[in-house]
Input
Amino acid sequence: MEDCLFCKIAAGEIPSEKVYENEYVYAFKDIDPQAPFHVIVIPKKHIKSAADITPENSIEVAKIFEAISEIAAKEKLEKGFRVVNNCGSDGGQTVNHMHFHLLARRNLQWPPG
Ligand code: AMP
Ligand code: ZN
Output
């Protein structure tokens, strides 16, 4: 998909702080974190929003949640985490490549400083 910020991040054309990657999924630190741990998890395949999930592409969602559980184990989020999806303009979605916010460690001081 041309001119899609998150497609470019997944392709390595725009730099990001990678947290996790496999054949289907790419995860990176949010540039404007809203929690001490804030990662964006995306399918490498361009899907515009959660409203565009179909029986043909829903494997991408399964792969995202498999990745989230792997990231949680690797990052020792044993106390838990939140997964947030903003869908469409009324849902607050600003980047039109479906993504899931993974937020954790709310027990730490926030905002920092
Ligand atoms: P949303 O509002 O749900 O569409 O979320 C988009 C998220 O992408 C926001 O939390 C932004 O801070 C984040 N974001 C935007 N550009 C970048 C970038 N270049 N690298 C990392 N995160 C980004
Ligand atoms: Zn895209």
In short: The chain has a mean pLDDT of 95. The longest strand covers residues 37-43.
